[in-house]
Amino acid sequence: MEDASRELQKSQSQLFSQPTAGNTSAATDGTPVVALKQLMAQLQEQNKIQDLLGSLSFALRSFNNLNQFLELIPLMATRVTDANGSALFLYKPNGQVRLEQLHWQDSGQRKNIRKALEIASSQITLLPNTAPLANATGILDDQMHRYLGPDVQIFGTAILVKQTERGWLYVLSRDPEYSWTETRQKLVRLVADQTAVAIENDELAIELRKKERLDQELEIGREIQRRLLPRQCPTIPGAVLAARCKGANRVIGNYYDFIPTNHNQIQSNTKNGLESELWGLVIGNVMGKGVPAGLIMTMMRGMLRGEVLNGNSPSMILQHLNRAIYADLENSHRFVTLFYSEYNPQSRILSYSNAAHNPPLWWHAATKTVTRLDTLGMLIGLDANSEYENAQAQLERGDTIIYYTNGLTDAAAASGDRFNEDNFVAGFNTACKYCNGPEEIVNYLFDQVEQFIGADKQNTDDMTLVVMQLES
């Protein structure tokens, strides 16, 4: 703008200066006057562009509703191009080409113009959710000429959002002398570009609102799931327990629980167990992560808690659970690993059955050695007729049992190396020798895994530990 003003001042000084011998001919030809007119035209064009951009920017800031902004577009396009009217067409996800907004100066003709344009656009259908064909615009031009008649000139420019054609902005004129000048083309392109910005902003806002709703739903799901996991470990005579579950996502697919095995334990509503009461200790992992795994885990928890109260052996509990949940897991194409055990505080016998879960580790206080607790059994949900085995372990004072999920053994460092089961067993053995109680064992093993992963890295899988240590 300043450059144009300086050029204008220069031309004015040339216009009113006295001609010299060398420029008499130029002055006679009126060249300074032509230059002045050109500069005035440039100034007017620049003013019009600045006014247009200012108006569009104000409208973008002022309107939260896309439709309110789009109503202004044909009006502005008409005003800045001195046309009779303007029409905005947008491509819809279902493949339709729709007349979104129309402005026509003559209100008496507006209804007929709208009807003609709606009929013209209804003749075109694109493939849903795909980019328009190269000749789609030409077809729309032909249909508009057909229904508007030969006395209406049409000029258009594409609405491009992220380099994808999303519609067209047309300028319409009944003036036979009307010309589609470069200036008018430039102004309409500016309007079209701002229209594209508004559409993109609206879509981003919609996506943001969807994400916010999803975040709220995930947070609700996380809170519900957190409440379903044990708030604290039960008090079992002669044993001390500790547990921790750390999810890779807000909704997790790991599961652990301490389950009363008869109605008396539930009705007593007390943390203190009795010598004769069995406690179910279970750990599981749904294949996959996130919301689907979390939903399956929640459903399985309810089924298992109901099955335990029937008083069956661990193997029969797994067998009945597998049959009950098989159809749901088959439909979701997911499976569950599950280790179920029952501890008798009076006899210190741990009865158990395994459905392809990581075998818990048993640290023998007397020998300072580690063995695995395992039985043959297939994944829950793999075969409706799967059968499972029972086994028992006679625990001694000072012995420690650890239940865990593969999120700990499969934890990966930046180099790609896995923590693996050997490191986990070695860490557990060390923890049992030197840590003071189950809580310290849990903390030590989590620290070992997190140091292996790296302080600035989040594990990609859920990690769960449950430790039961018998009093010496």
Short account of what is shown:
By secondary structure, this protein is α+β, with helices and mostly antiparallel strands. It contains 13 helices and 14 strands.
List descriptors:
five-stranded antiparallel beta sheet, 13 helices, disordered N terminus
Mean pLDDT: 83
Catalogue the unreliable spans: 1-29, 269-274
Q: Within the largest sheet, what's the order of strands?
A: 5-14-13-10-11
Major sheet: size, sense and barrel closure? 5 strands, antiparallel
Secondary structure class reads: alpha+beta
Instruction: Estimate the global geometry from the Cα principal axes.
Output: elongated
Counting DSSP E segments of at least 2 residues, the number of strands comes to 14
Question: What share of residues is helical?
Answer: 40-55%
Estimated radius of gyration: 38 Å
H/E series, N to C?
Answer: HHHHEEHHEEHEEHEHHEEEEEEHHHE
Taken as a percent bin, the fraction of beta residues is 15-25%
Number of helices: 13
Distance between the termini: 90 Å
